[in-house]
Specification:
By secondary structure, this protein is mainly alpha-helical. The chain has helices at about 5-15, 20-25, 30-40, 45-50, 60-95.
Length: about 100
């Protein structure tokens, strides 16, 4: 499954538009759009949520973007869980090493 930014790019390419024109179509600032497409701004941001609610996109396109956001939410959740688990193991190992 593609990331939010990759889905945005594919949609923009399908319209044959520049980033600035597509940003205008969906009602966001061009610099915000660039950051979303490149992944600099998180799919969990308010900007991404505004894009998903845009009247400039079809219902199907909005659904695709919602799915991409859910996927990234899940990956973030997994990454946090893994980081917590690793930190716990380190603390545990340090405790036994003393």
């Amino acid at each position: 499954m593609k990331t939010f930014g990759q889905e945005l790019r594919e949609m923009r390419d399908s319209y044959g538009m520049t980033q600035a024109k597509f940003a205008e179509k969906i009602g966001v600032n061009p610099s915000t759009y660039y950051a979303l497409e490149s992944g600099t701004v998180s799919a969990q941001s308010n900007s991404a949520k505004r894009v998903v609610q845009s009247r400039g996109l079809s219902q199907f396109e909005r659904l695709i973007l919602r799915k991409a956001i859910k996927k990234e939410d899940r990956l973030t959740e997994i990454a946090i869980t893994d980081a917590d688990r690793l930190a716990y193991r380190r603390r545990k190992n340090e405790k036994y090493a003393q």
